[in-house]
Design brief:
Blueprint (H helix, E strand, L loop, with lengths): L3 H11 L4 E2 L2 H6 L14 E3 L4 H14 L3 E4 L16 E4 L6 E5 L4 E4 L5 H9 L3 E2 L12 H7 L6 H4 L6 E7 L5 E5 L11 H5 L8 E8 L1 E2 L3 E9 L2 H13 L6 E6 H11 L9 E9 L1 H17 L4 E4 L3 H12 L1 H6 L4 E4 L2 E2 L5 H14 L3 E7 L4 E8 L4 H20 L18 H20 L24
Parallel strand pairs: 2-4, 3-4
Antiparallel strand pairs: 1-2, 5-6, 6-10, 7-11, 8-9, 8-10, 12-14, 12-15, 13-14, 13-18, 16-19, 17-19, 18-19
């Protein structure tokens, strides 16, 4: 419980409806989409403007109150869980699309704007915002920026950082900085925009975002390829890229995931094959047709047992919707699903899937794997029960081996979910002790009191590295 003077000041800043601290409200903001992690905040505040965010942070800095920025809470790294208490600052009241500039192909938005409706708004104007996280229907653009969200279209279009031209952000001291701008070339000083994108709310609170837009593709087609074994699917992925084709999406589901998704979504996915590739291409109509024809040929020569091109836009939407339903479908099977992400070079995709299966058998766990095959980003998802402490110990051991294997293959511990609290123990495996030290100095420069999203990114103790040879 916050002291009464702090409660009174936060209520004064945000208004009576902008500060919450009832037990029910504290419970609602004690977790995000990450399983297992939960910790109650001391209060919840909803600023309506940059000025209110400034006032809150200025007051918090003076009083030593911890602040945890939050959007819709859809992240999967416990990045918005208040693991050390404090006040959760929810930015969903700042949700306006302030400007869509059709001359410069930019949009200026507040951090609480929801990604999906924003995409629909710009597409109605013949424009396109490509970043496409799985939580697109509910995630906020500010949350996407804070975590550098990826998604299904990352292979061709990149991730969130590739579309952020500038930011307005409030430092823990209450000072406001503006980075970047509409100029397409700008090398004035350090690239603070890139530094803040993906900083997971540990350096500043983002209050305005300048986004790059591109012309909306004129055509789009979807293809489903079925393979008897994962190695065949991986060969097809390499073959497609070698043919100088970069699909808009190139998604992978293993047999276990395909079965569960089909049972849930009834989209016509086969359940008797080793692996499924869902491929979407967009662009000029003639180019799309030629690419789909060549992709189909590559899949067949790589060992596909069947290749199907969606006959209608509705069928295509159904297939991609089924892929997006993977998490929801898997979550029905057991009380807890631990959905992780690890990335490897595309050439190691099959090796990584096989390693995940070997690790799952070793630890007697059910792990289904799906993900973005085109950029080597896999989502091994363990079906478990958080109440079973012995099984959860095996889950932790298994994922530690999975992350170590990914790093040994030249990959990384997280391709798009971020570090947060869930992967803080493993960050040093990827960046090294010197990298951690540099990051900590940056954190101290922005947040010398350590009040902004504490307990994230950096482990309290160093986790011994698991040595694997891959």
């Amino acid at each position: 419980m916050l002291p009464e003077p702090i409660r009174r000041e936060l209520t004064t800043i945000a208004g009576p409806e902008g500060f919450l601290d009832s037990p029910a409200d504290l419970l609602a903001y004690s977790y995000d989409a990450t399983p297992v992690y939960q910790s109650a905040p001391d209060g919840v505040v909803f600023p309506r403007s940059t000025e209110e965010a400034q006032a809150i942070l200025r007051f918090a800095s003076r009083e030593g109150v911890k602040i945890i920025p939050r959007g819709s809470g859809t992240n999967l790294s416990a990045g918005s869980v208040p693991v050390e208490g404090g006040v959760v600052m929810v930015l969903t009241r700042m949700s306006r699309v302030r400007e869509i500039d059709t001359e410069n192909l930019t949009a200026t938005v507040e951090p609480g704007a929801i990604t999906g409706p924003f995409q629909a708004q710009v597409e109605a104007m013949g424009l396109f915002y490509p970043p496409d996280p799985g939580s697109v229907a509910v995630s906020t653009l500010g949350g996407n920026v804070a975590t550098c969200a990826g998604g299904l279209r990352g292979l061709k279009y990149g991730v969130t950082r590739d579309y952020v031209l500038g930011l307005e952000a409030v430092l823990p001291s209450g000072e406001v900085i503006r980075t970047g701008g509409k100029a397409m070339k700008d090398v004035a000083g350090y690239d603070l925009t890139r530094l803040l994108v993906g900083s997971e709310g540990t350096l500043a609170v983002i209050t305005e975002i300048l986004l790059k837009l591109v012309p909306k593709p004129a055509a789009k087609r979807t293809l489903l390829a079925l393979f008897p074994h994962v190695t065949d699917a991986a060969r097809a992925v390499s073959g497609i890229i070698a043919a100088r084709i970069v699909p808009a999406t190139l998604e992978f589901l293993d047999q276990a995931t395909a079965r569960v998704v089909e049972d849930y979504a009834h989209a016509g996915l086969p359940t008797d094959v080793g692996a499924v590739l869902l491929i979407e291409q967009d662009g000029a109509p003639a180019a799309v047709d030629a690419d789909i024809e060549e992709i189909a040929r590559v899949c067949r020569t790589s060992g596909a047992s069947d290749v199907r091109v969606a006959a209608t836009p509705e069928e295509a939407v159904g297939l991609m919707t089924a892929r997006r339903a993977a998490l929801a479908a898997l979550a029905r099977l057991r009380p807890t699903i631990v959905l992780e992400d690890a990335s490897v070079p595309r050439s190691r995709l099959a090796d990584m899937v096989q390693a995940i299966n070997t690790i799952a058998r070793k630890h007697r766990l059910q792990i289904c794997t799906f993900g973005h095959a085109g950029d080597g980003n896999l989502h091994p998802s363990c079906l478990t029960d958080a109440r079973d402490t012995e099984e959860m110990r095996r889950v932790e051991e298994a994922f530690a081996e999975i992350f170590a294997t990914a790093v040994a293959m030249g990959g990384t511990i997280t391709g798009e979910h971020g570090v947060g609290a869930a992967k803080a123990d493993y960050l040093e495996w990827k960046v090294g002790a010197a990298g951690i030290a540099v990051m900590k100095r940056l954190k101290s420069a922005f947040d010398p009191q350590g009040i902004l999203n504490p307990g994230k990114m950096f482990a309290r103790t160093s986790r011994p590295r698991i040595v694997v040879s891959r």
